[in-house]
Amino acid sequence: MHDVFLIAHRKWEEYDRTRPLTSWLFGITRMVVLNRRRMTRRHERKIRAILAPSVLDDLELRHDTRRRVELVRRFLASLPTIQRVPFELIDLEGMSAAEVAAAMEANVDTTYSRLRAARRKFQALITEVGDEYQ
Which of 8, 86, 97, 121 shows a CA-CA span of 20 to 30 A to 103? Predict the structure, then answer.
């Protein structure tokens, strides 16, 4: 809901006041929900691929992989949305910074800056956990 009203605020000048406000807000809500579902499906496909039984036959490897996946999940949950989205879409999903900037309605330089901040935090986490996860 927060995302819907942020987008509505940003696009307020584009709103055609001859049309119902509820329809305009519904359209924004629909796009936010569709984008969120698409991101969730991509994320779940990647997690399933990582945890595929054919790849993880060894129990120790399976346990180690689960720990690593959980570490990444906790890291992603700890990031602010403006850093998490570029990190997920660029580094995990393979989108370009220009695509992410357009989707987030942000400047490409700003998107790169947010991505760098997320990458620094991830590197700090990896350094902090050290040999425990390697």
Answer: 121
